[in-house]
């Protein structure tokens, strides 16, 4: 083990560059997957004719495919269909599509957890279906979704490491390059990567608990 060599300035900067790519990919994918997943979850909760069953099939299909397969498809198969994406674009597309399906189920479950009596009371008081969803169901449902949503975001952040398969210069990709210089760097570099992932994900979990306690 060579901690001094593995933690040299150049290598640490190289890992930091990979971490920034990881966080960038994760942040964009989280925003997109949450937006699309919430929309799909609401449509399925509302049981919109035609659209809801079609989305249900799509969600089940995506949830039962390996994420690595979706990443490889986005990078190497989409060009044959006329959509050429670089490593970053392919990673974002794959993570967004996969997590969108997962988040849509979290959203649908959160909305379905609201007692039917509240919905019926809101409708009987004169609120429309959209108003009931907006003012009664969605605010309560979102609070209940916080823990599982954060768990999905943490999974997404960890899953960015799979993008090393398409040569995306994220944290684990850069770590592998450093280890390639000398196997004596393997343990120090992997320990540092583990510490980085743990720190970022632990901060996310703390944020989740804080939001829960505040009743956001």
Automatic annotation (TrEMBL):
Subcellular location: Cell membrane
Gene3D superfamilies cross-referenced by the UniProt entry: MetI-like
Molecular function in Gene Ontology: transmembrane transporter activity
Residue ranges occupied by any ABC transmembrane type-1 domain in the UniProt entry: 19-208
Alphabetical keyword list: Amino-acid transport, Cell membrane, Membrane, Transmembrane, Transmembrane helix, Transport
Transmembrane segments: 12-42, 54-78, 185-204
Membrane topology: Multi-pass membrane protein
A Pfam family per the record: BPD_transp_1
BP term (GO), one: amino acid transport
Superkingdom as given in the UniProt entry: Bacteria
GO cellular component annotations of the record: ATP-binding cassette (ABC) transporter complex
UniProt family annotation: Belongs to the binding-protein-dependent transport system permease family.
Name used for this protein in its record: Amino acid ABC transporter membrane protein 2 (PAAT family)
Native source organism of the sequence: Fontibacillus phaseoli
Lineage: Bacteria, Bacillati, Bacillota, Bacilli, Bacillales
């Amino acid at each position: 083990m060579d901690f001094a060599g593995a933690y040299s300035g150049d290598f640490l900067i190289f890992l930091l560059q990979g971490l920034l790519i990881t966080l960038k990919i994760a942040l964009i994918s989280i925003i997109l997957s949450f937006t699309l997943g919430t929309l799909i979850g609401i449509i399925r909760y509302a049981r919109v004719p035609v659209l809801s069953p079609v989305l249900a099939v799509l969600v089940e299909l995506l949830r039962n495919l390996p994420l690595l397969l979706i990443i490889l498809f986005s990078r190497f198969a989409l060009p044959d269909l006329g959509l050429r994406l670089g490593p970053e674009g392919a990673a974002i597309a794959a993570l967004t599509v996969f997590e969108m399906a997962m988040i849509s189920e979290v959203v649908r479950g959160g909305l379905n957890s609201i007692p039917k009596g509240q919905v019926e009371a809101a409708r009987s008081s004169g609120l429309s279906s959209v108003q009931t969803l907006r003012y009664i169901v969605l605010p309560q449902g979102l609070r209940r979704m916080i823990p599982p949503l954060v768990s999905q975001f943490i999974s997404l952040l960890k899953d960015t490491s799979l993008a090393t398969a398409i040569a995306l210069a994220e944290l684990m990709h850069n770590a592998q390059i450093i280890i390639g210089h000398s196997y004596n760097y393997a343990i120090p570099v992997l320990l540092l990567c583990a510490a980085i992932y743990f720190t970022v994900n632990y901060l996310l979990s703390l944020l989740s608990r804080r939001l829960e306690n505040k009743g956001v």
